Amino acid sequence: DVVDLEWVQVGDIRIYKYEASRPDATPAHMGNLSGRACSKPGVVPWSELSFDEARVACALGGWRLCLISEWQLACGGPARTRYPYGNNYDEQACNGREAGQQENDVAATGDHEATCESAYGVVDMSGNLKEWTGSPAGDDNDPVHLIIGGAYDNALEASLSCDNRGIPREDGFRFPNLGFRCCKTP
Question: How many CB atoms lie within 10 A of CB 50?
Answer without folding.
Answer: 17
